[in-house]
Write a structure and sequence with these properties.
alpha/beta, two-stranded antiparallel ribbon
């Protein structure tokens, strides 16, 4: 089946200093453009982000401060990036939620707006993947128990299925621990400070992961937005351990990384 294009389709991927749009910075950008006549063009460059790359980010993309030391700043290549992306539709994996808004934010910071048509289309391969490869309870039952259950959406049958999936997971994955507490710790994000992940370590910095201050460090919040942390303490929707992080920070006690077992 041939992809029918009326304008170029730019496949965009970024490597960054972290996950926060508008706060973190691009360190590597790659663009593969598919044109309506079928030919492709590729372009890539490392970017000096003007800030240290956190060890956690380097562990993912293997890009170090030394590698980007002589690389151009985004301001120096912004016009090339805009020329490669303007007038295109976009595709990528998680590109809708990450790469497109991220590159727009970084270009805007460099004073270079990304100009796109009003009817620009963003095709996200992750959405397609999740459409065809379901990740719900029915899919888990099929994988681990080998049955094709009816979608009852009733509580008791679903509870039976969930327990059955867990017991089969214990058989299928030899590296899973054997106690509930150890299993919960095994699958927990090691950088999450509270259970809901409202605060997480990125390198040695603690960052807030939600709301209008998403991506800012806890130290920045204490200096500039103490009122937001105080507001958290009075909101019932926040879990107590999330409130404890805010409360302790306001009292001058910062989170410490958990020791890995």
């Amino acid at each position: 089946m041939k992809l029918q294009l009326s304008r170029p389709l730019a496949s965009l991927d970024l490597e960054t200093t972290g996950p926060f749009v508008g706060v973190d910075r691009i360190v590597d950008i790659g663009i593969v453009t598919l044109f309506p006549d079928g030919h492709t063009e590729e372009w890539q460059t490392l970017i000096n982000p003007g800030m240290p790359i956190p060890p956690g980010a380097t562990a993912i993309h293997r890009i170090t401060d030394e590698m980007v030391k002589e690389a151009p700043r985004l301001e120096q290549v912004a016009d090339q990036v805009r020329a490669r992306l303007s007038g295109c539709d976009f595709c990528g994996f998680n590109v809708k939620r990450f790469d497109v808004p991220f590159v727009k934010a970084d270009l805007a910071r460099a004073g270079k707006e990304l100009i796109t048509d009003n009817d620009v289309v963003v095709i996200d391969a992750m959405d397609i993947y999740h459409h065809f490869e379901r990740r719900d309870l029915v899919a888990a039952v099929r994988r681990y128990i080998g049955l094709d259950p009816l979608q009852s959406h009733r509580a008791l049958p679903d509870a039976r299925s969930s327990l059955g999936v867990l017991l089969e997971q214990m058989k299928s994955h030899a590296d899973l621990p054997t106690t509930p507490a150890a299993i919960a710790d095994f699958v927990r994000d090691p950088d999450a400070i509270d259970e809901d992940g409202k605060f997480k370590f990125y390198g040695d910095d603690v960052r807030i992961t939600f709301g209008k201050h998403r991506g800012h460090t806890l130290k920045w919040m204490l200096k500039n937005e103490r009122g937001f942390l105080q507001w958290m303490l009075g909101v019932a929707d926040f879990a107590e351990d999330s409130k404890a992080v805010a409360r302790n920070a306001l009292a001058g006690v910062m989170p410490k990384k958990r020791e890995m077992k």
